[in-house]
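Co-fold these.
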Amino acid sequence: MKEVHYDVVVCGAGVAGVAAAVAAARRGAKTVLIEKQCLLGGLATSGLIYIYLPLCDGYGKQITFGLSEEMLKRCVEYGPFEVPARWGGPEGGNPGIAGTRYQCCFSPAGFTLTLDKMLAEAGVDLWLDTQIVNASAENDRITSVDAANLSGLTRILGKCFVDATGCALAAKLAGAEVLSEANFNTPWMMEMASDPSFFHFTDSLHIQDFGKHTKEFAVEPPYDGRKVTEFVRRGWQMMRARYDKLSREERVKNYPVHLPAMPQIRKIARIDACYTITESDVGKHFEHVIGTAANWYHPDAGWEAPYESLIPRKLDGLLAAGRCMGAEGYAWEIFRVIPAAAMTGEAAGIAASICAERGLLPRALPYEDLKKELHALVPDAR
Ligand SMILES: Cc1cc2nc3c(=O)[nH]c(=O)nc-3n(C[C@H](O)[C@H](O)[C@H](O)COP(=O)(O)OP(=O)(O)OC[C@H]3O[C@@H](n4cnc5c(N)ncnc54)[C@H](O)[C@@H]3O)c2cc1C
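Predicted complex below.
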């Protein structure tokens, strides 16, 4: 099999993976980003999400910084929405349904175009339409991933890896334990309709929500290939049920435009981390903080992430970022969304590039050395 070598190998180009790759490449690491789709942004774009959730605590104070803020400001570039005026957007701009918190709406397709620009500016080597199908480990240290695309199979060796697959797949393929939780099926689609009922782009183009948060729509782990197929097809069934009730005349005005290209499962799998953030960690200060996430449900003191929440307990050479990091229950709800994915991705990318540069394993990287490079994420880091 053909072999290629990089300093940092980032698996998955969702928001977390893009942030990790940009952060690592900006530090000068030779960085590859591998993505199975031909879109960037993962669930945030191909899942037809369109709210960049808040960077503030809900009481008027910004608590998430760094690339997460940069992405929020740039995600509106190719779309009709603006950052709310009180957070730096233009007076009279259109914040969509974002309201007064430091959040905004975006066009999913437009966000992909922006993320691509960020990767190109940083000099990341991007491999689209390339699926990671295997990983190798020696003495519990990941050494390579195997990627399949039209060229065939390539072995990608790295000094340090970031798992940003949204489902801890790289860690799992390398032999690490992964954990999961129940989810509700709430599929969305982009719809053309005369009576917009959910998130508006224009008077007729909007996102339509089909699911219900009830036991009937709950899916229990473990998630396997079969269950994902069932989950997605159940969503399509709910969608058809809406249109099946309409007459042919009504269907001319009410019809699907675009479906999510990724399973809209909120919490598929996460690493078994050295530290798992839990509900009781709200407002807690960690000695090894890498950034803070905001509660997007309601105002609170904020959620710090310790460096150890990115490190698998039983696998070396890899950091997890985004929704497959170590957080459970309500805390996973806080950390699985876009701004937290960007924040943990950036921290993982910085840590991975330092480890690659110095020949260190992530768990052996002294926090004091990492902290010096976290100024953008943790403003009071010295
Ligand atoms: C219904 C629903 C509504 C939501 N609403 C919001 C919202 O309004 N605002 C918000 O901020 N968040 C929302 N979220 C959550 C949020 O969009 C995601 O959780 C977040 O974007 C996750 O980012 P990530 O980078 O961690 O993972 P992902 O987006 O899952 O990215 C992982 C990437 O890895 C790729 N990948 C996976 N396996 C492989 C492989 N084997 N080889 C190569 N590539 C691979 C995937 O294709 C994907 O691009 C919502 C989620 C759902 C399901």
